[in-house]
Amino acid sequence: MIRFAEWHPGLRKGLRHRGALVGLALIGVFLVMAATSPLVAPRDPLAQNLAQRLEAPSAEYPLGTDDFGRDILSRVLYGARISLRVGVVAVAISLFIGGTIGLVSGFYGGTLDLLVMRLMDVLLAFPAILLAIAVVAVLGPSLTNAMVAVGITGIPVYARLVRGVVLQVKSLEYVTAARALGAGDARLVLRAVLPNCVAPLLVQTSLGLATAVLDAAGLSFLGLGAQPPTPEWGAMLSQGRELILDAPWALTAPGLAILLSVLGFNLLGDGLRDALDPRA
User: Is the dihedral of CA 259, 260, 261, 266 positive or negative?
Assistant: First the structure.
């Protein structure tokens, strides 16, 4: 039986890439946090105890408490579930819609390709966070709408990425030969085009997860994403920003969580890019 690491030579190289290993380890830690937070969190993340508000880190409260007396450690642990879910859902929206658009546009070309790519250029002309804010302003502030907004901002990136791969592949000899032998569009797309999109999409998905987590945290920080008292990292930063002098621990922990999770996805994406680059 062929081991998974031997399925693609690039994967074996990726497993030896130090940056990718560090990123994978960081992501693994946050996945474990998200999966086990109901079991390992010492307290209810929503439970308030005003008698112990703004407690400094101690044996009882390892990361301290916020201005409502809520345990910050428990809120950070539960926040991993929310922030990672937001990132995964947002990237899934971008990948499915953007990938489909790029596939159809690149494969059929012509006027359709011209119109679709001009629309993608218009979306790319807006800074991602401003476009996300505009979408949330239309839909209303909520965690679900923040996922949709961040997902929409990523559609042009995936569309142009997949379109570029499709344009390269569809002109190759084996695709032309398959078409000459009577292969239909569906067979060409599934057997010849899509497999060539896997490597760049893996890299972009990892990098996109980092961007999605960061953008979603930014929307929550502005009050457009997760609403209080939801233990989301960006919302926790927003609630603790006024306490930076009196209780810096209230925003240090969620800030580090965002930093390390984004760093993990970026390191993994860079490692995958180096490992799956056919020129390497």
Answer: positive
* Gap between the Cα atoms of 256 and 233, Å rounded: 9
Please state, in angstroms and rounded to a whole number, the distance separating the CA atoms of residues 228 and 66: 13
Residue 123 inside a domain? The answer is yes
**Residue numbers of the domain that contains 83:** 31-43+67-276
Find the largest Cα–Cα distance for the chain. 78
Q: At what angle do helices 194-221 and 128-139 cross, to 10 degrees?
A: 70
Rg of the chain taking only CA atoms, in angstroms? 22
| Torsion (CA) 260, 240, 37, 22 in degrees, nearest 10 | 0
pLDDT band at 199 (very low <50, low <70, confident <90, very high): confident
Q: Which pLDDT value is given to residue 1?
A: 32
Give me the CATH number covering residue 250: 1.10.3720.10
Q: Is 8 left (phi over 0), alpha (psi -120 to 50) or beta?
A: beta
Amino acid letter at 202?
L
Q: In the chain, how many domains are there?
A: 1
Tell me: pLDDT of 155 over 60.
yes
